[in-house]
Amino acid sequence: MGIYLVMKNNFKRSFRHKALFAVTFILPVILCIITGAIRFGHSSIRVGILGLDTNSYLSADRKEVYEILNKSDGLTYGAASKGTFQTDLILGKFHIILDYSKSRTINSFQLLGNQDEGKLLQLEKIVKEAVTKKQPVTLTGLKPKGLSVTERSITIILTLFMVLSTVHASGIIRDKQNGIVLRYQFAKLGSTGYAAGYTIYNFLIIYAQVLLCMMALLFIQKGFSLDSRELFIISLLIAVISAGFSMLICLGSKSEVQSNIMASALAVVFSLLGGTFVAIDAMPGLLRILSFISPDRWMVELLRVL
Amino acid sequence: MRILMKMILMDLKRRTKDGFVLGYNIIFPILMIILLGYLTSGNYGKHFTGYQYYSVVMLPFCIAMAMITAAYAGKDEAYKKTAVRFLFSPVSRIQIVLSKLISCALTICICNLVVLIIAKLAFGLPADLGLIPIFLLLASETFAVCAAGLLIGLGMKNFILIKNLLNIPICLAAILAGSFYPIGTLNSRLELVLKLSPLTWMNRSIFLFLYDNNLSLLWKTALIFFVTGLGLTLLAVTFFKKEEFIYGDLPGYEK
Asked: What's the domain count of chain B?
Protein backbone atom coordinates (compact mmCIF):
# COMPACT_ATOMS: atom_id res chain seq x y z
CA MET A 1 0.00 0.00 0.00
CA GLY A 2 2.81 2.36 0.96
CA ILE A 3 4.57 1.75 -2.33
CA TYR A 4 1.39 2.52 -4.24
CA LEU A 5 0.83 5.72 -2.26
CA VAL A 6 4.35 6.98 -2.95
CA MET A 7 3.94 6.26 -6.65
CA LYS A 8 0.52 7.94 -6.78
CA ASN A 9 1.76 10.95 -4.86
CA ASN A 10 4.67 11.38 -7.25
CA PHE A 11 2.37 11.31 -10.24
CA LYS A 12 0.13 13.86 -8.54
CA ARG A 13 3.13 16.09 -7.89
CA SER A 14 4.19 15.78 -11.51
CA PHE A 15 0.75 16.42 -13.00
CA ARG A 16 0.21 19.47 -10.82
CA HIS A 17 2.62 21.30 -13.12
CA LYS A 18 1.51 20.07 -16.49
CA ALA A 19 3.71 22.32 -18.60
CA LEU A 20 6.80 21.43 -16.59
CA PHE A 21 5.97 17.74 -16.75
CA ALA A 22 5.40 17.95 -20.50
CA VAL A 23 8.82 19.52 -20.97
CA THR A 24 10.60 16.94 -18.80
CA PHE A 25 8.72 14.20 -20.62
CA ILE A 26 9.02 15.35 -24.22
CA LEU A 27 12.47 16.96 -24.26
CA PRO A 28 14.38 13.76 -23.37
CA VAL A 29 12.40 11.86 -26.01
CA ILE A 30 13.36 14.40 -28.67
CA LEU A 31 17.00 14.32 -27.60
CA CYS A 32 17.05 10.52 -27.63
CA ILE A 33 15.52 10.44 -31.10
CA ILE A 34 18.17 12.87 -32.38
CA THR A 35 21.04 10.97 -30.77
CA GLY A 36 19.66 7.56 -31.69
CA ALA A 37 19.26 8.67 -35.29
CA ILE A 38 22.89 9.72 -35.70
CA ARG A 39 24.68 7.02 -37.65
CA PHE A 40 27.85 6.55 -35.62
CA GLY A 41 30.65 4.44 -37.00
CA HIS A 42 29.18 4.08 -40.49
CA SER A 43 30.80 1.11 -42.14
CA SER A 44 32.49 3.01 -44.98
CA ILE A 45 36.18 3.83 -44.83
CA ARG A 46 36.90 7.50 -45.40
CA VAL A 47 39.92 8.27 -47.53
CA GLY A 48 41.47 11.70 -47.80
CA ILE A 49 43.38 12.80 -50.89
CA LEU A 50 46.19 15.25 -50.29
CA GLY A 51 48.00 17.21 -52.97
CA LEU A 52 46.68 15.31 -55.96
CA ASP A 53 44.96 18.27 -57.59
CA THR A 54 47.96 20.56 -57.12
CA ASN A 55 50.63 18.07 -58.20
CA SER A 56 51.70 19.03 -61.75
CA TYR A 57 53.33 15.63 -62.41
CA LEU A 58 49.99 13.89 -61.99
CA SER A 59 47.74 16.25 -63.93
CA ALA A 60 47.14 13.61 -66.62
CA ASP A 61 46.58 10.72 -64.19
CA ARG A 62 44.54 12.21 -61.38
CA LYS A 63 41.26 11.34 -63.10
CA GLU A 64 42.26 7.68 -62.94
CA VAL A 65 42.71 7.80 -59.15
CA TYR A 66 39.25 9.31 -58.69
CA GLU A 67 37.74 6.68 -61.00
CA ILE A 68 39.33 3.85 -59.00
CA LEU A 69 38.06 5.34 -55.74
CA ASN A 70 34.62 5.90 -57.26
CA LYS A 71 34.37 2.26 -58.22
CA SER A 72 35.46 1.05 -54.76
CA ASP A 73 32.75 -0.29 -52.46
CA GLY A 74 32.52 0.71 -48.80
CA LEU A 75 34.77 3.69 -49.36
CA THR A 76 34.14 7.41 -49.45
CA TYR A 77 36.75 10.00 -50.28
CA GLY A 78 37.34 13.70 -50.14
CA ALA A 79 40.06 16.28 -50.49
CA ALA A 80 42.33 16.74 -47.48
CA SER A 81 43.87 20.09 -46.65
CA LYS A 82 47.59 20.53 -45.97
CA GLY A 83 46.97 22.76 -42.97
CA THR A 84 44.49 20.47 -41.21
CA PHE A 85 45.15 16.90 -42.34
CA GLN A 86 46.58 15.67 -39.01
CA THR A 87 43.55 17.02 -37.14
CA ASP A 88 41.20 15.51 -39.74
CA LEU A 89 42.84 12.12 -39.20
CA ILE A 90 42.63 12.44 -35.42
CA LEU A 91 39.01 13.56 -35.39
CA GLY A 92 38.02 10.76 -37.75
CA LYS A 93 37.11 12.80 -40.82
CA PHE A 94 39.48 10.49 -42.67
CA HIS A 95 40.64 7.05 -41.66
CA ILE A 96 43.60 7.24 -44.02
CA ILE A 97 45.08 9.90 -46.31
CA LEU A 98 46.80 9.28 -49.63
CA ASP A 99 49.50 11.95 -49.70
CA TYR A 100 50.35 12.82 -53.30
CA SER A 101 52.17 16.07 -52.58
CA LYS A 102 55.62 14.59 -53.31
CA SER A 103 54.61 11.82 -55.75
CA ARG A 104 55.54 11.56 -59.38
CA THR A 105 53.34 8.57 -60.19
CA ILE A 106 49.85 7.70 -59.00
CA ASN A 107 51.00 4.62 -57.09
CA SER A 108 53.87 6.27 -55.23
CA PHE A 109 51.78 8.11 -52.68
CA GLN A 110 52.51 8.11 -48.98
CA LEU A 111 49.81 6.62 -46.79
CA LEU A 112 49.08 8.62 -43.64
CA GLY A 113 47.05 7.37 -40.71
CA ASN A 114 47.00 6.99 -36.94
CA GLN A 115 46.81 3.20 -37.01
CA ASP A 116 49.78 1.07 -35.95
CA GLU A 117 52.57 0.60 -38.48
CA GLY A 118 51.65 -2.99 -39.37
CA LYS A 119 48.10 -2.05 -40.22
CA LEU A 120 49.21 1.00 -42.20
CA LEU A 121 51.62 -1.13 -44.26
CA GLN A 122 48.84 -3.61 -44.96
CA LEU A 123 46.52 -0.80 -46.05
CA GLU A 124 49.22 0.79 -48.20
CA LYS A 125 49.87 -2.51 -49.95
CA ILE A 126 46.17 -3.03 -50.72
CA VAL A 127 45.64 0.51 -52.03
CA LYS A 128 48.87 0.55 -54.11
CA GLU A 129 48.04 -2.81 -55.64
CA ALA A 130 44.57 -1.61 -56.58
CA VAL A 131 45.87 1.66 -58.05
CA THR A 132 48.59 -0.16 -60.07
CA LYS A 133 46.10 -2.68 -61.44
CA LYS A 134 43.47 0.05 -61.84
CA GLN A 135 41.01 -2.07 -59.88
CA PRO A 136 38.60 -1.02 -57.13
CA VAL A 137 40.12 -0.82 -53.63
CA THR A 138 38.79 -3.48 -51.27
CA LEU A 139 39.21 -2.35 -47.68
CA THR A 140 36.16 -3.98 -46.16
CA GLY A 141 36.98 -6.47 -43.44
CA LEU A 142 39.82 -4.33 -42.15
CA LYS A 143 37.54 -2.56 -39.73
CA PRO A 144 36.56 -4.63 -36.67
CA LYS A 145 32.92 -5.65 -36.80
CA GLY A 146 30.96 -3.21 -34.67
CA LEU A 147 27.31 -2.96 -33.74
CA SER A 148 24.44 -2.87 -36.19
CA VAL A 149 22.34 0.30 -36.53
CA THR A 150 19.63 -1.13 -34.25
CA GLU A 151 22.11 -2.35 -31.64
CA ARG A 152 23.99 0.93 -31.57
CA SER A 153 20.82 3.03 -31.34
CA ILE A 154 19.57 0.88 -28.48
CA THR A 155 22.81 1.14 -26.50
CA ILE A 156 22.80 4.90 -27.00
CA ILE A 157 19.19 5.13 -25.86
CA LEU A 158 19.98 3.00 -22.82
CA THR A 159 22.92 5.26 -21.95
CA LEU A 160 20.83 8.40 -22.32
CA PHE A 161 17.97 7.02 -20.25
CA MET A 162 20.37 5.95 -17.51
CA VAL A 163 21.30 9.63 -17.30
CA LEU A 164 17.79 10.97 -17.81
CA SER A 165 16.05 8.74 -15.30
CA THR A 166 18.22 10.27 -12.61
CA VAL A 167 16.40 13.55 -13.31
CA HIS A 168 13.16 12.04 -12.00
CA ALA A 169 14.77 9.81 -9.38
CA SER A 170 16.82 12.60 -7.81
CA GLY A 171 13.59 13.90 -6.29
CA ILE A 172 14.04 11.29 -3.57
CA ILE A 173 17.18 13.13 -2.39
CA ARG A 174 15.14 16.31 -2.04
CA ASP A 175 12.45 14.37 -0.19
CA LYS A 176 15.07 12.99 2.18
CA GLN A 177 16.46 16.47 2.82
CA ASN A 178 12.97 17.87 3.41
CA GLY A 179 12.04 15.14 5.86
CA ILE A 180 9.33 13.57 3.70
CA VAL A 181 11.01 10.16 3.87
CA LEU A 182 11.23 10.52 7.65
CA ARG A 183 7.50 11.31 7.86
CA TYR A 184 6.84 8.24 5.74
CA GLN A 185 8.89 6.14 8.18
CA PHE A 186 6.92 7.56 11.11
CA ALA A 187 3.85 6.02 9.49
CA LYS A 188 5.51 2.65 10.22
CA LEU A 189 6.44 2.14 6.61
CA GLY A 190 10.06 1.27 5.80
CA SER A 191 12.17 3.58 3.71
CA THR A 192 12.62 0.69 1.26
CA GLY A 193 8.96 1.04 0.36
CA TYR A 194 9.47 4.72 -0.35
CA ALA A 195 12.36 3.92 -2.69
CA ALA A 196 10.35 1.14 -4.34
CA GLY A 197 7.40 3.48 -4.93
CA TYR A 198 9.71 6.07 -6.40
CA THR A 199 11.36 3.46 -8.63
CA ILE A 200 8.00 2.28 -9.98
CA TYR A 201 6.94 5.86 -10.68
CA ASN A 202 10.25 6.45 -12.42
CA PHE A 203 9.97 3.19 -14.34
CA LEU A 204 6.51 4.01 -15.68
CA ILE A 205 7.62 7.40 -16.97
CA ILE A 206 10.77 6.02 -18.58
CA TYR A 207 8.90 3.11 -20.13
CA ALA A 208 6.50 5.48 -21.85
CA GLN A 209 9.40 7.66 -23.01
CA VAL A 210 11.43 4.71 -24.32
CA LEU A 211 8.43 3.32 -26.19
CA LEU A 212 7.81 6.69 -27.82
CA CYS A 213 11.45 7.01 -28.70
CA MET A 214 11.70 3.50 -30.20
CA MET A 215 8.55 3.93 -32.26
CA ALA A 216 9.82 7.23 -33.62
CA LEU A 217 13.14 5.61 -34.54
CA LEU A 218 11.32 2.79 -36.32
CA PHE A 219 9.83 5.41 -38.61
CA ILE A 220 12.78 7.73 -39.13
CA GLN A 221 15.93 5.64 -38.73
CA LYS A 222 17.04 3.73 -41.79
CA GLY A 223 18.24 0.27 -40.77
CA PHE A 224 16.57 0.38 -37.33
CA SER A 225 14.27 -2.60 -37.08
CA LEU A 226 12.52 -4.32 -34.18
CA ASP A 227 9.42 -6.53 -34.24
CA SER A 228 6.66 -5.95 -31.71
CA ARG A 229 7.98 -8.64 -29.31
CA GLU A 230 11.51 -7.18 -29.39
CA LEU A 231 10.12 -3.68 -29.03
CA PHE A 232 8.20 -4.69 -25.91
CA ILE A 233 11.05 -6.62 -24.27
CA ILE A 234 13.83 -4.16 -25.08
CA SER A 235 11.82 -1.10 -24.01
CA LEU A 236 10.84 -2.85 -20.79
CA LEU A 237 14.44 -3.77 -20.04
CA ILE A 238 15.76 -0.30 -20.80
CA ALA A 239 13.16 1.14 -18.43
CA VAL A 240 13.94 -1.42 -15.68
CA ILE A 241 17.71 -0.94 -15.95
CA SER A 242 17.45 2.87 -16.07
CA ALA A 243 15.02 3.06 -13.14
CA GLY A 244 17.07 0.66 -11.02
CA PHE A 245 20.36 2.31 -11.91
CA SER A 246 19.13 5.82 -11.16
CA MET A 247 17.60 4.79 -7.84
CA LEU A 248 20.84 3.13 -6.75
CA ILE A 249 22.78 6.26 -7.70
CA CYS A 250 20.34 8.52 -5.87
CA LEU A 251 20.34 6.37 -2.74
CA GLY A 252 24.12 6.51 -2.67
CA SER A 253 24.39 10.25 -3.32
CA LYS A 254 24.33 13.07 -0.81
CA SER A 255 23.10 15.73 -3.20
CA GLU A 256 21.26 16.06 -6.48
CA VAL A 257 24.29 17.45 -8.28
CA GLN A 258 26.34 14.47 -7.11
CA SER A 259 23.70 12.03 -8.34
CA ASN A 260 23.38 13.74 -11.73
CA ILE A 261 27.11 13.85 -12.35
CA MET A 262 27.67 10.31 -11.06
CA ALA A 263 24.90 8.98 -13.30
CA SER A 264 26.37 10.69 -16.37
CA ALA A 265 29.88 9.45 -15.65
CA LEU A 266 28.88 5.85 -14.92
CA ALA A 267 26.47 5.65 -17.86
CA VAL A 268 29.22 6.81 -20.21
CA VAL A 269 31.68 4.25 -18.81
CA PHE A 270 29.11 1.44 -19.15
CA SER A 271 28.32 2.56 -22.67
CA LEU A 272 31.98 2.54 -23.69
CA LEU A 273 32.62 -0.83 -22.08
CA GLY A 274 29.49 -2.18 -23.74
CA GLY A 275 30.91 -1.57 -27.20
CA THR A 276 28.72 1.37 -28.21
CA PHE A 277 31.63 3.19 -29.82
CA VAL A 278 34.56 0.74 -29.83
CA ALA A 279 33.84 -2.82 -31.01
CA ILE A 280 34.29 -5.30 -28.16
CA ASP A 281 36.56 -7.42 -30.38
CA ALA A 282 38.88 -4.44 -30.78
CA MET A 283 39.20 -3.89 -27.03
CA PRO A 284 42.20 -5.05 -25.00
CA GLY A 285 41.69 -8.40 -23.21
CA LEU A 286 41.10 -6.97 -19.75
CA LEU A 287 38.43 -4.56 -20.94
CA ARG A 288 36.77 -7.31 -22.94
CA ILE A 289 36.31 -9.16 -19.64
CA LEU A 290 35.25 -5.96 -17.85
CA SER A 291 32.65 -5.31 -20.55
CA PHE A 292 30.53 -8.05 -18.95
CA ILE A 293 29.57 -5.62 -16.19
CA SER A 294 28.05 -3.27 -18.75
CA PRO A 295 24.27 -3.51 -19.19
CA ASP A 296 24.77 -2.22 -22.74
CA ARG A 297 26.66 -5.37 -23.65
CA TRP A 298 23.94 -7.58 -22.18
CA MET A 299 21.32 -5.62 -24.07
CA VAL A 300 23.16 -6.23 -27.35
CA GLU A 301 23.63 -9.93 -26.55
CA LEU A 302 19.93 -10.22 -25.76
CA LEU A 303 18.97 -8.49 -28.97
CA ARG A 304 21.10 -10.97 -30.91
CA VAL A 305 19.42 -13.89 -29.12
CA LEU A 306 15.96 -12.46 -29.82
CA MET B 1 37.26 46.03 -4.30
CA ARG B 2 38.32 44.94 -0.80
CA ILE B 3 34.86 43.51 -0.20
CA LEU B 4 34.95 41.68 -3.52
CA MET B 5 38.37 40.21 -2.72
CA LYS B 6 37.10 38.98 0.65
CA MET B 7 34.08 37.40 -0.98
CA ILE B 8 36.21 35.75 -3.64
CA LEU B 9 38.55 34.36 -0.98
CA MET B 10 35.63 33.02 1.03
CA ASP B 11 34.10 31.39 -2.02
CA LEU B 12 37.48 30.03 -3.08
CA LYS B 13 37.83 28.36 0.31
CA ARG B 14 34.43 26.80 -0.18
CA ARG B 15 35.26 25.51 -3.66
CA THR B 16 38.66 24.13 -2.74
CA LYS B 17 37.21 22.35 0.26
CA ASP B 18 34.60 20.68 -1.92
CA GLY B 19 36.09 17.27 -2.58
CA PHE B 20 33.49 16.50 -5.21
CA VAL B 21 34.41 19.51 -7.35
CA LEU B 22 38.11 18.67 -7.18
CA GLY B 23 37.47 14.98 -7.77
CA TYR B 24 35.25 15.67 -10.74
CA ASN B 25 37.68 18.09 -12.33
CA ILE B 26 40.96 16.29 -11.63
CA ILE B 27 40.44 12.62 -10.83
CA PHE B 28 37.51 11.99 -13.19
CA PRO B 29 39.22 13.30 -16.36
CA ILE B 30 42.43 11.42 -15.55
CA LEU B 31 40.52 8.19 -14.92
CA MET B 32 38.57 8.68 -18.14
CA ILE B 33 41.77 9.34 -20.10
CA ILE B 34 43.31 6.14 -18.73
CA LEU B 35 40.18 4.06 -19.30
CA LEU B 36 39.34 5.36 -22.76
CA GLY B 37 42.98 5.47 -23.85
CA TYR B 38 43.36 1.83 -22.86
CA LEU B 39 40.01 0.94 -24.41
CA THR B 40 40.98 2.36 -27.78
CA SER B 41 44.65 1.37 -27.68
CA GLY B 42 44.05 -1.13 -30.49
CA ASN B 43 42.86 1.64 -32.81
CA TYR B 44 46.02 3.72 -32.59
CA GLY B 45 49.71 3.28 -33.24
CA LYS B 46 52.79 4.48 -31.38
CA HIS B 47 53.00 7.90 -33.03
CA PHE B 48 49.58 9.01 -31.84
CA THR B 49 47.91 7.19 -28.94
CA GLY B 50 44.42 6.98 -27.54
CA TYR B 51 45.76 8.52 -24.31
CA GLN B 52 46.75 11.63 -26.25
CA TYR B 53 43.37 11.82 -27.96
CA TYR B 54 41.43 11.62 -24.71
CA SER B 55 43.83 13.98 -22.92
CA VAL B 56 42.67 16.62 -25.37
CA VAL B 57 38.94 15.90 -25.60
CA MET B 58 38.23 15.08 -21.95
CA LEU B 59 39.13 18.51 -20.55
CA PRO B 60 36.63 20.62 -22.57
CA PHE B 61 33.91 18.05 -21.75
CA CYS B 62 34.63 18.12 -18.00
CA ILE B 63 34.68 21.92 -18.08
CA ALA B 64 31.27 21.92 -19.77
CA MET B 65 29.96 19.64 -17.02
CA ALA B 66 31.18 22.19 -14.48
CA MET B 67 28.19 24.31 -15.53
CA ILE B 68 26.16 22.25 -13.05
CA THR B 69 28.71 22.96 -10.31
CA ALA B 70 28.53 26.68 -11.08
CA ALA B 71 24.73 26.60 -11.05
CA TYR B 72 24.83 25.08 -7.58
CA ALA B 73 27.45 27.62 -6.49
CA GLY B 74 24.78 30.24 -7.16
CA LYS B 75 22.57 28.47 -4.63
CA ASP B 76 25.26 28.15 -1.95
CA GLU B 77 23.92 30.98 0.22
CA ALA B 78 20.37 29.72 -0.05
CA TYR B 79 21.38 26.21 1.01
CA LYS B 80 23.68 27.41 3.77
CA LYS B 81 21.10 29.97 5.00
CA THR B 82 23.55 32.87 4.74
CA ALA B 83 21.81 34.77 1.95
CA VAL B 84 19.93 37.23 4.17
CA ARG B 85 23.19 38.34 5.79
CA PHE B 86 24.50 39.20 2.35
CA LEU B 87 21.47 41.33 1.60
CA PHE B 88 21.84 43.22 4.88
CA SER B 89 25.51 43.90 4.23
CA PRO B 90 26.76 46.60 1.83
CA VAL B 91 27.30 44.16 -0.99
CA SER B 92 26.01 44.72 -4.52
CA ARG B 93 24.63 42.00 -6.75
CA ILE B 94 27.55 42.57 -9.15
CA GLN B 95 29.91 41.66 -6.31
CA ILE B 96 27.88 38.56 -5.48
CA VAL B 97 27.89 37.34 -9.08
CA LEU B 98 31.54 38.23 -9.67
CA SER B 99 32.78 36.58 -6.47
CA LYS B 100 31.04 33.35 -7.37
CA LEU B 101 32.13 33.52 -10.99
CA ILE B 102 35.78 34.22 -10.23
CA SER B 103 36.02 31.61 -7.48
CA CYS B 104 34.40 28.90 -9.62
CA ALA B 105 36.45 29.77 -12.71
CA LEU B 106 39.71 29.96 -10.74
CA THR B 107 39.18 26.60 -9.04
CA ILE B 108 38.31 24.87 -12.30
CA CYS B 109 41.22 26.56 -14.12
CA ILE B 110 43.65 25.27 -11.51
CA CYS B 111 42.18 21.77 -11.91
CA ASN B 112 42.55 22.08 -15.70
CA LEU B 113 46.17 23.08 -15.34
CA VAL B 114 46.90 20.09 -13.10
CA VAL B 115 45.26 17.69 -15.60
CA LEU B 116 47.05 19.35 -18.52
CA ILE B 117 50.45 18.98 -16.85
CA ILE B 118 49.71 15.34 -15.95
CA ALA B 119 48.59 14.72 -19.55
CA LYS B 120 51.85 16.16 -20.86
CA LEU B 121 54.06 14.25 -18.46
CA ALA B 122 52.22 10.94 -18.27
CA PHE B 123 50.51 10.59 -21.63
CA GLY B 124 53.06 12.35 -23.83
CA LEU B 125 50.86 15.17 -25.05
CA PRO B 126 53.07 16.92 -27.62
CA ALA B 127 53.16 20.48 -26.41
CA ASP B 128 56.29 21.68 -28.17
CA LEU B 129 54.68 25.06 -28.71
CA GLY B 130 53.77 25.28 -25.04
CA LEU B 131 50.67 24.65 -23.00
CA ILE B 132 49.83 28.32 -22.48
CA PRO B 133 47.54 28.78 -25.53
CA ILE B 134 45.64 25.60 -24.61
CA PHE B 135 45.34 26.73 -21.03
CA LEU B 136 44.04 30.14 -22.15
CA LEU B 137 41.48 28.47 -24.41
CA LEU B 138 40.34 26.21 -21.58
CA ALA B 139 40.22 29.22 -19.25
CA SER B 140 37.97 31.10 -21.67
CA GLU B 141 35.66 28.08 -21.90
CA THR B 142 35.66 27.81 -18.10
CA PHE B 143 34.72 31.49 -17.83
CA ALA B 144 31.80 31.09 -20.27
CA VAL B 145 30.61 27.86 -18.66
CA CYS B 146 30.73 29.28 -15.12
CA ALA B 147 28.89 32.42 -16.26
CA ALA B 148 26.19 30.26 -17.87
CA GLY B 149 25.95 28.14 -14.70
CA LEU B 150 25.56 31.24 -12.54
CA LEU B 151 22.93 32.67 -14.84
CA ILE B 152 20.96 29.46 -14.30
CA GLY B 153 21.65 29.33 -10.57
CA LEU B 154 20.96 32.98 -9.76
CA GLY B 155 18.78 34.24 -12.54
CA MET B 156 16.30 31.52 -13.44
CA LYS B 157 13.22 30.58 -11.54
CA ASN B 158 12.81 27.01 -12.76
CA PHE B 159 16.32 26.11 -11.65
CA ILE B 160 15.40 22.52 -10.70
CA LEU B 161 14.16 21.74 -14.19
CA ILE B 162 17.02 23.42 -15.99
CA LYS B 163 19.85 21.98 -13.95
CA ASN B 164 18.31 18.52 -14.18
CA LEU B 165 18.09 18.70 -17.93
CA LEU B 166 21.46 20.41 -18.26
CA ASN B 167 23.58 17.28 -18.53
CA ILE B 168 21.55 16.02 -21.50
CA PRO B 169 22.59 18.73 -23.97
CA ILE B 170 26.10 18.70 -22.53
CA CYS B 171 26.42 14.93 -23.11
CA LEU B 172 24.88 15.31 -26.56
CA ALA B 173 27.36 18.09 -27.42
CA ALA B 174 30.18 15.87 -26.13
CA ILE B 175 29.09 12.94 -28.29
CA LEU B 176 28.89 15.19 -31.34
CA ALA B 177 32.31 16.64 -30.58
CA GLY B 178 33.90 13.19 -30.38
CA SER B 179 34.60 13.38 -26.64
CA PHE B 180 33.90 9.68 -26.28
CA TYR B 181 34.81 8.47 -29.74
CA PRO B 182 35.82 10.37 -32.88
CA ILE B 183 32.84 10.58 -35.23
CA GLY B 184 34.20 12.46 -38.19
CA THR B 185 32.23 12.38 -41.39
CA LEU B 186 32.36 13.36 -45.05
CA ASN B 187 28.61 13.88 -45.11
CA SER B 188 28.11 17.63 -45.28
CA ARG B 189 24.78 17.57 -43.43
CA LEU B 190 26.13 15.50 -40.54
CA GLU B 191 29.25 17.66 -40.51
CA LEU B 192 27.04 20.69 -40.03
CA VAL B 193 25.32 18.98 -37.09
CA LEU B 194 28.70 18.16 -35.53
CA LYS B 195 29.74 21.78 -35.91
CA LEU B 196 26.73 22.88 -33.83
CA SER B 197 28.47 21.58 -30.73
CA PRO B 198 30.76 24.18 -29.14
CA LEU B 199 32.93 21.31 -27.91
CA THR B 200 33.66 20.37 -31.53
CA TRP B 201 35.34 23.75 -31.95
CA MET B 202 37.22 23.37 -28.69
CA ASN B 203 38.60 19.95 -29.61
CA ARG B 204 39.41 20.97 -33.16
CA SER B 205 41.22 24.11 -31.99
CA ILE B 206 43.45 22.16 -29.61
CA PHE B 207 44.23 19.41 -32.14
CA LEU B 208 45.00 21.96 -34.85
CA PHE B 209 47.40 23.71 -32.51
CA LEU B 210 49.11 20.57 -31.24
CA TYR B 211 49.34 18.50 -34.41
CA ASP B 212 49.07 20.96 -37.32
CA ASN B 213 50.81 23.91 -35.62
CA ASN B 214 47.81 26.03 -36.48
CA LEU B 215 46.90 28.60 -33.83
CA SER B 216 44.38 30.78 -35.64
CA LEU B 217 41.27 28.77 -34.79
CA LEU B 218 42.36 28.48 -31.16
CA TRP B 219 42.48 32.24 -30.66
CA LYS B 220 39.18 32.74 -32.47
CA THR B 221 37.47 30.07 -30.37
CA ALA B 222 39.00 31.49 -27.18
CA LEU B 223 37.79 34.97 -28.11
CA ILE B 224 34.26 33.75 -28.88
CA PHE B 225 34.07 31.90 -25.55
CA PHE B 226 35.42 34.94 -23.72
CA VAL B 227 32.92 37.31 -25.33
CA THR B 228 30.11 34.80 -24.68
CA GLY B 229 31.28 34.61 -21.07
CA LEU B 230 31.16 38.40 -20.76
CA GLY B 231 27.66 38.46 -22.23
CA LEU B 232 26.46 35.72 -19.89
CA THR B 233 28.02 37.49 -16.89
CA LEU B 234 26.12 40.65 -17.82
CA LEU B 235 22.93 38.61 -18.12
CA ALA B 236 23.62 36.93 -14.75
CA VAL B 237 23.97 40.35 -13.12
CA THR B 238 20.92 41.76 -14.93
CA PHE B 239 18.65 38.80 -14.19
CA PHE B 240 19.94 38.26 -10.65
CA LYS B 241 16.89 37.31 -8.59
CA LYS B 242 16.96 38.16 -4.92
CA GLU B 243 14.22 35.61 -4.22
CA GLU B 244 16.26 32.85 -5.85
CA PHE B 245 19.36 33.90 -3.95
CA ILE B 246 17.55 33.77 -0.59
CA TYR B 247 14.90 31.09 -1.01
CA GLY B 248 16.36 29.04 -3.89
CA ASP B 249 16.73 26.03 -1.60
CA LEU B 250 13.06 25.80 -0.67
CA PRO B 251 11.30 22.78 -2.12
CA GLY B 252 8.68 23.87 -4.54
CA TYR B 253 9.90 27.43 -4.61
CA GLU B 254 10.37 27.10 -8.35
CA LYS B 255 6.64 26.37 -8.58
From this structure: 1
